[in-house]
Amino acid sequence: MNLMSNFRGRLKQYFTFKDSVSKRYGNGLYVFNYHRIGNPADTEYDPNVFSCSVDNFEQHLRFYKSNFCMLDENTLLELFRDKSYFDKPYALITFDDGYVDCFDYAFPLLLKHNLSAVFFIVTDFVDGRELAWWDKVAYLLKNTTVKQVQLPHWSKSYPIVRSNIAKSIKGILKAFKDDSSLSIKDKVSFLEQACNVDLPQKVSLYLSWHQIEEMLTAGMGIGSHTLSHPILSHLSDLEQMEELASSKVKLSKALGQTPTLFSYPVGKAGTYNSVSEDLVNKLDYQLAFAFKGGVNTQLDMSLRYNIDRVSVDGDKSVEELARFIFKVI
Ligand SMILES: [Zn+2]
User: Fold this and answer.
1) d(CA 244, ligand 1 centre) in Å
2) How many A from CA of 9 to the centre of ligand 1?
């Protein structure tokens, strides 16, 4: 009797699950992207790149497993090779930029829940040889004593409000992204002078090659996110080629395996162009990920170099995450 009621209970649970899957989320490819995991109050750098706390990340993993057919790099590639439409709600977890939190927090939890994710690496950042430009900007603004900044060619100044430094950082980073008249390197250099702060020379903020190798061996996917994380549409064709080709060579040499996946830095409309898409194709990347904030419903060739992702940020609880997904679909 007990066995029977147990079985009935499990059967009911199964159908409730099947029901909830079909009712909740339509067929398609849902790609959930993260950057950093942890507490933004603990960093000397950009607090806006934290996706969620370690606890919430683990809850997100449980939620994805109960609601989606989870993919890894290989099953994702198979899907594009073998199918012409999405027959289920599929989901993939990705991480951009290659912060060390990926190894310290995300990787053990992914293993614990028998899940994989794809980590997109900026090869210049590996081993902390170079600090991301947004982290440089954040460090300068957090450590300066000046109250506002204006680069020489800007028509307006931006306040640095110490009580809400995250918002000030966000505003100045937006000005950096919108301004294509100078290279990011030159803009950072002007900001360094304006803030009168020295940047740290070497940081342990990003993954090491050793850590990336360990993650790859354990079944995680590793893709390219360029050499230096520029806004590709601001570059010449040749400079774009260098960013996409050299990062692929570096990953291949370091890991003994050619990366098949690429994600466009920033990835919003206007931050990459048809040249970027052509280069991804010519350089033999199989798939490329954008960041326009939607769900992919059509499985066709046009999706191959424009797979959309949603950004998981703001330390969402599972309930907030579920509501957020409903909003974007
Ligand atoms: Zn990025």
Assistant:
1) 14
2) 45
Q: Please tell me the distance between residue 320's alpha carbon and the centre of ligand 1 in angstroms.
A: 24
Distance 81 CA to ligand 1 centre (A): 27
Spell out the per-residue pLDDT of the chain, length 329, in tens.
444 445 444 444 444 444 444 457 899 999 999 999 999 999 999 999 999 999 999 999 999 999 999 999 999 999 999 999 999 999 999 999 999 999 999 999 999 999 999 999 999 999 988 899 999 999 999 999 999 999 988 999 999 999 999 999 999 999 988 888 898 899 999 999 999 999 998 888 999 999 999 999 999 999 999 999 999 999 999 999 999 999 999 999 999 999 999 999 999 999 999 999 999 999 999 999 999 989 999 998 889 999 999 999 999 999 999 999 988 87
Range 271-279, long-range pairs (CB < 8 A, 24+ positions): 271/177, 271/231, 271/232, 271/233, 272/232, 272/233, 273/232, 273/233, 275/232, 275/237, 275/240, 276/232, 276/233, 276/240, 276/244, 277/305, 277/306, 279/240, 279/241, 279/244, 279/245
Domains along the sequence of the chain with CATH: 27-130+209-328 (3.20.20.370), 133-195 (no CATH)
Rounded distance from Cα 126 to ligand 1 centre (Å): 14
CA of 21 from ligand 1 middle (Å) equals: 31
The residues placing their C-beta within 5 Å of ligand 1, an ion, are 96-97, 265
CA 165 / ligand 1 centre spacing (Å)? 21
